[in-house]
Amino acid sequence: MSTVRTRIAPSPTGFLHLGTARTALYSWAFARHSGGKFVLRIEDTDVARSTQDSVDQILVAMKWLGLDYDEGPVYQMQRLDRYTAVVEQLMTEGKAYRCYSTPEELDAVREAKKARSEKPLYDGRWRPEPGKTLPLVPDGVKPVIRFKNPTEGDVTWNDLVKGPITINNREIDDLIIVRADGIPTYNFAVVVDDWDMHITHVYRGDEHINNTPWQINIFNALGAPLPQFGHCPVILGDDGQKLSKRRGAVSVTAYQEAGYLPEALLNYLARLGWSHGDEELFTAEQIVTWFDGTHLNKSPAQWDPAKLLWVNAHYVKTADNARLAKLVTPFVRAKGLDIDERLADICGLFKDRCETLVVLANWVSAFYGQVTPKPEEITQHVTQAIRPVLDSLSQSLSSCTWDKAGIAAAIKDVLTQHGIKMPQLAMPVRVLVMGTAQTPSLDAVLALSKREVVLQRLKSV
Ligand code: GLU
Fold first, then answer.
1. Which atom of ligand 1 is closest in space to residue 194's alpha carbon?
2. Which of these, 448, 444, 451, 460, lies nearest to 400 by C-alpha position?
3. pTM given for the model
4. Using one digit for the tens of pLDDT, what is the confidence trace for 334-351?
5. Co-location of 68 and 86 in the same domain
6. 8-23 pLDDT per residue, tens
């Protein structure tokens, strides 16, 4: 049995798109599940739009998601000699030919076919056939190279996601495989690469489904073994339209910056288009164990920000405090604040009320920066009647042992002394010290605050 080899082949023309991240995840999981190999290939033949910056962003995003690859990154632009050699082979075998049609001629053919309600396919004027006289080669026109697509018969494959698909060769024309500038087109380079890299399973977005018949014909012309193809349906936004930049975040990086945990995005992406029973929460290890290429959805998945938040909240809540501290640090530093050794415990105290690291960072900043209680909360909770109690509390807190037990005892003394109940004191203290009346238990919050900061905030209003 041949070893499973999968790949992800992003074009470096922007950030790692969520759709690409999802097919990368499926390809990775399937390779890991099968004890195979996962390859990263950078499809940079669109020279005008490809950038190193984009390559870097893609590599960072893959690493952040934990999608480690066994080979690559392989850059297509470093393989031009190989594509040239394969094109020469096809030309020698009469399976590819030079086409000198100018863009104007091609436009005219297209328009004429459209006018006759025909599919605007290439008219084959430069396609050599036995007994056919080709036009004279014009001066000054750089030719493209076209693949001599079969004119008869069907292309059929059993799609790993969609099931059997059949396209008649009359529906497709002679594809340009090398542009006039000598650079191969996507549909050709992808075949040579998948062949050379011994790829066995191709998972990709279904925007490529129309390309697959051409690719299969080229594989066959080269005598190369066919990989299996699986086309995952598009991801729709909550308005039912294809997820796009105009409608919100579409890149892995944007979610990292918005305070999502990598395992949450991975979990959510896996579930978006694949299922394992009723499971909603699973680790990367479980995805690898369960992902055998089945149970992939045939119909488009809808991006659900609320569900992603729920998944993220789960992972924030269950994350180790020290790790959370590390993850939240850049968000806190971005506010111009310095952190210290209290950070992990602060994360531990607040993590079960935070859906994202951004929310956690907001809580954390109450300990390292300033707080600004809302005027209406001050009016509601910091009443004239409570001010003498706050003075007593300040006094007790200035000399008690500064830990949770010491602070709890000091608070209890003040409550007894003034004959009031905990909420009457806790609410104004929370508003003054944390800037809001909704916090975890007061003694725990105060113990993680600095004594001088608490005393100063208690008399700040
Ligand atoms: N470069 C293509 C893309 O980013 C890859 C398609 C494929 O996986 O074959 O869409």
1. 9
2. 451
3. 0.93
4. 999 999 999 999 999 999
5. no
6. 999 999 999 999 999 9
